[in-house]
Amino acid sequence: MTVTFYGVLDGYGPEDTMANGERFDPYAMTAATNLWPLGTRLRVCVDADCVGVTVTDRCGACSLDLSYGAFGALAPHSRGVLAAAVEVVG
């Protein structure tokens, strides 16, 4: 079953270790969220641009925080926050 979430997302910066136990790589296609389990694969789309990310970390009050690399693939970092469509793909 495909679930699409529409919400606001932002980027997050360096953490030493993520919730999955791995060291944070700001250029990896990863995300932090409390909405889906660790390991969930998501397709995040802003307008016609899409990236695939894996949930590897948790966040406080966010809907979805993208790594520096994933956010930058969708928009300039200066935008700060983005409205996006998020689809669970695995």
Summarize this structure briefly.
This protein is mostly beta strands and about 90 residues long. Helices cover about 10% and strands about 40% of the residues. The mean pLDDT is about 85.
Structure description:
It is a single chain. With 90 residues, the protein is mainly beta. The chain has a single domain, classed as Beta Barrel (Barwin-like endoglucanases). Helices cover 8% and strands 41% of the residues. It has one helix and six strands, in the order βββββαβ. The chain has one helix spanning 68-74; strands at residues 4-11, 30-32, 41-46, 49-57, 64-66, 81-88. Strand 3 and strand 4 form a beta hairpin. The radius of gyration is 12 Å and the shape is globular. The N and C termini lie close together (10 Å).
